Amino acid sequence: xxxxxxxxxxxxxxxxxxxxxxxxxxxxxxxxxxxxxxxxxxxxxxxxxxxxxxxxxxxxxxxxxxxxxxxxxxxxxxxxxxxxxxxxxxxxxxxxxxxxxxxxxxxxxxxxxxxxxxxxxxxxxxxxxxxxxxxxxxxxxxxxxxxxxxxxxxxxxxxxxxxxxxxxxxxxxxxxxxxxxxxxxxxxxxxxxxxxxxxxxxxxxxxxxxxxxxxxxxxxxxxxxxxxxxxxxxxxxxxxxxxxxxxxxxxxxxxxxxxxxxxxxxxxxxxxxxxxxxxxxxxxxxxxxxxxxxxxxxxxxxxxxxxxxxxxxxxxxxxxxxxxxxxxxxxxxxxxxxxxxxxxxxxxxxxxxxxxxxxxxxxxxxxxxxxxxxxxxxxxxxxxxxxxxxxxxxxxxxxxxxxxxxxxxxxxxxxxxxxxxxxxxxxxxx
Length: 430
Known about the structure:
Blueprint: H1 3-9, H2 20-28, E1 38-42, H3 47-60, E2 65-68, E3 80-82, E4 85-86, H4 89-108, H5 116-130, E5 135-139, E6 157-160, H6 168-171, H7 175-182, E7 192-194, H8 199-211, E8 216-218, E9 224-230, E10 233-240, E11 243-250, H9 255-273, H10 280-289, E12 297-301, E13 304-307, H11 313-327, E14 332-336, H12 344-351, E15 357-360, H13 371-380, E16 384-387, H14 391-401, E17 407-411, H15 414-428
Helix pairs in contact: 2-5, 3-9, 3-10, 4-5, 7-8, 11-12
């Protein structure tokens, strides 16, 4: 069994929240996380993009930066990046090998086995310490309060992005409860930046920051002026912490990406206020360079093919809002597959505002929704559906039908998007 297979074997233990196992594991490994300078990022949507913006801004200044994210789309190594590259297979073997020795020791002592995510997190901490990372941008896996990444005790800044409904069975069924779980990453005296807009979520996050004696910065009231918005990105002016930025350019698409960039820039400026050395040139360069695969990613311009990991109601709304200004009046074909445990009807209420024509397929995941059931829900919105049982069949059908459309958008699940992306890259070498 190779290393990645052994890591995935731990999936049978599930995604158990709690810090006891990871704390014990890291203690046996010498607590590498205590030697890292971390920027900790939580939220329902947008946290991956915010992480990428911060990562690229710091890298543009010349810092050696780690980026820890989840899940991966195509290859496991995406989850652990450093200084502009993914961790190599050999490095995965080496660092997870060290972690598994500690896991085996824990089990021999009769202790509970760490989960898959805890093992990966511990390996990442070891790797970043040995790479002498200047900074680590650390994305929460699930929630915040009991997430394995929350073992860090003194983040340079805690960032909480938008709050909406997802994983309600684990995090709560109100925005206030979900925000409370996300706000669990807030640490005593460490500055907090949040882009949460919903009042009930904002109030919880602000209240927790005040309770912990933290400086609190919100971006929900920041106004910006968009100069243009195209399929290649956008340009805007904004003033943050009394500093004006003119003609900031980003390559990620959609209004929500402007707001994610503003959140990331606020976090960097807070760090600068507290001693970080970073130039305006690095800020401009990093924001423009930042790209995230699978998030409104243009796979082809002729014909126009876009993939997006939107899988919950807020993500679906964001996809609609990103699409409308740049594809207004265009005929769009949607290819969709979803997981059965998502709020599919609420997400579809947004997807069906983008297009009248859908190809429905199966997500390559045990939690997949039957495509016939998904098609029935789409048809309840008065939309036409075509069923392709497998993703490769969906691609073939979309290519045939796409000749009658101006654009094709794949969406509904990160698992589906990752698989589609691999198939497209293997087939078209794009």
